[in-house]
Amino acid sequence: MLLLVDPLFYAAAVATVLFCSFRFFLAGKFFVEGAGTTDLRQLFQSVPFISIATVPLIVFRLRRFICDDSLPVAPAKRFAVIIAAALSAFSVPVLMLVSVPACVSSFGDVDVGQAAAGFSGVILYGLLASSLSVFLFAAFPSVPAIPLLVSMAVLAAVDFIHIVPLYVPLGSALSFAMRKISFAWHFDSFGKGIADSRDISFYLISSALFVVMSVVAERRRTGRRGGRAALLVALASLSLLAFSAERSYFRADMTASRRHSPSKATRSLVSLLGSPLRITYYRSRELSELYPQASEVADFLLEFSSLSPLVTLEVVDADAGRLSGLGVQGQQLERNTGTKIELVTVYSAVVMQHLDRQSIIPYVLSTGTLEYDLAQRVKQLVSGSARRVAVFVGNGRDCGESYSYVAPFLASRGFMPEIVGGVEAERAISSLGSGDSLLVLGSSEMTFAQGQAVAGAIGRGVPSLIATSPYSVPVETEWTVSRADDDPLIPVLNSLGFAFVPALVEDLSCFPVSMQSGEGNSAEFVTLNYPLWLSLMPQPAAVRGMTLFWASPLALYGGAVPLLRSSPYSWLQRDGAPFVTDPFALQGASSGGDYEQYVVAAEKMTETERVCVVADQHFVSSLMTGFISGENSVDFRNFDFLCTRLLRLNGEDALADMLDRTRPATSLHKISDAEEFGSERRRTLAIHFVFLPLAAALPFAAICAKRRRKQ
């Protein structure tokens, strides 16, 4: 009741709502195209920051009960009640933030399991922060300002002490200790959607420890004697519990796709093992100091090894000489020492040995695609076969420059890419069998014989992914569209059920390009929506969406089925007159209200033919990938689609599902209309920056008004 009439409680609630909303929606660029995400980790990670101030302030208003030993209750019970009161006050604004995932769900898909785990972790964090503050107020009872400031300083320290090794070289033992006592370190897994019993135990046991320490502090203040045996037993019990929690634990993956734990498909693959599989994880000690999430790799490997008694795991310190002999190169990471930035060479390699075969994951830093990497290697180790893909560029470009990402990316996903071209292309394609795959990028410069070789491969059942269209665009120079009337592959695809409509698709859901406007001193860069670059919304074949460039629509028949579609707000720029491709000239372009959805990728899966057609030869172009990527990250969504499609064409749906589930759809794909998006944005901002703060403050205003009327 005391907190209900205290202005500091309401101020803390308003501050929590405003700060967390600001960090998620504004600082996190939620409404910026291409930057917004439905991943809620930014929201949950905001709570420890603001709690450095709010939790000590809440406990500050309860301090008279902390030092009032005249109350007829046992000290431990009194402190527990005070902590519960502080936790209740802390939880009110946190629960109000449930509106964040509710509003975010209007823009994209929200993982309910991640939200539940995150809010549970926030409450546990609040319990521990409240317990720590109560202890500090009990330990420094004389001047109220001292425990308040000390609580804020200590909370700040224990929240972020785990990042100290990133800037100060420390020994592994000290770095390990800092991680173990960091409040925020133990909160990280909750934000990802994982309930780890070690983290839960840390919060609960540490909270109980601070209750015991508060009792000790009070006995010391009052000069009471006796009860030491009970306190020692309590401390010993808590220590034993903490030790047991670290030795025996469980991890519950609460995400909707269970992307942080082995899937049923992985369990099935592991069950095929008839002989022991030995996994050795070589990890540099410095890695855990620079990248704390590296510990999750060891956790996942341990869970993977528990799937079968035939799988054994050994985690060892990296030996540069031994790994070099295995062909593994170290990676250089930056470490800021405060006075300079130095490069540290680290290793994080997984070596898998089965019978006389060996497979290596040369570098792994997170669990993002780790399950897929392990599972597809298990399959190859058991079968002894390689996943060979012949890559043929038929538009006059080459893999070394125009498609430089293709071969390395395929290799990183367990494929064995083989670049075919020149005079040997026809022979290489003709020699492909059903166990191989074929990737064709463009066809405008393809010879008739090469086109027939591709047709023959498709007819023999070779899984084939064809990225082409009747139109070519010189992406390195002017974006002018030309048609190759003698393209030998287009008639082949038509005969298979993939007919190209003589047009280019334009879409309101498009990628913005930065262009220079004006010349000389008046030149400036402007961002323009470019409707010929399609931003495809997440759909079953592209769970995170993707981007296509100057794509032609497909008309399907003969068993071909759609894979990718444009948004419902699309229209066509028909062939006939020269195509308009200038981004400035296309501003304000529309269909006149005649919108439609168009197929831009399709596939045909029969007993004799397994072929996928993407109506865009540039979708994995290096240059175009650079256009749509950010300053610090590369947009590999198109390459993810490429790999999953090749896997599905090859009949490896389980592995394709693994890749899809490791990269959940977090884009804001539900609203493509700009006016509707703006309206929903205004509603969201009004809820979190006007209505929720008012809802948190109005009860206090009502109490004040009631007091005035009584006076």
Structure in a nutshell:
This protein has about 700 residues and is of the alpha+beta class.
Provide structural commentary:
The protein is α+β, with helices and mostly antiparallel strands. Helices cover 47% and strands 18% of the residues. The protein is built from 25 helices and 24 strands. Strands 10-9-11-12-24-23-21 form a 7-stranded mixed β-sheet, sandwiched between helices. Strands 4-3-7-8 form a 4-stranded mixed β-sheet, with helices on one face. Strands 17-18-19 form a 3-stranded antiparallel β-sheet. Helix 2 (41-60) runs antiparallel to helix 7. InterPro entries: ABC_transp_unknown, DUF7088. It holds the Pfam family DUF7088. Residues 257-352 form the DUF7088 domain.
What labels describe this entry?
alpha+beta; Glutaredoxin; Rossmann fold; four-stranded mixed β-sheet; 47% helix
Helices and strands in order, then pairings?
Layout: H1 7-27, H2 41-60, H3 63-66, H4 75-96, H5 99-104, H6 112-139, H7 145-160, H8 164-167, H9 172-181, H10 183-192, E1 194-196, H11 197-222, H12 228-247, E2 251-253, H13 264-271, E3 277-283, H14 285-290, H15 294-305, E4 311-317, H16 320-325, E5 331-336, E6 341-346, E7 348-354, E8 357-361, H17 370-383, E9 387-393, H18 406-412, E10 415-420, H19 425-430, E11 437-441, H20 448-459, E12 464-467, E13 471-472, E14 482-483, H21 489-496, E15 498-500, E16 503-507, E17 510-517, E18 524-536, E19 546-549, E20 554-556, E21 561-565, E22 570-574, E23 599-605, E24 610-614, H22 622-628, H23 637-649, H24 653-662, H25 674-710
Parallel strand pairs: 3-4, 9-10, 9-11, 11-12, 12-24
Antiparallel strand pairs: 1-2, 3-7, 5-6, 7-8, 13-14, 15-20, 16-22, 17-18, 18-19, 21-23, 23-24
Helix pairs in contact: 1-2, 1-4, 1-25, 2-4, 2-6, 2-7, 2-10, 4-6, 4-11, 6-7, 6-10, 6-11, 10-11, 11-12, 13-17, 17-24, 23-24
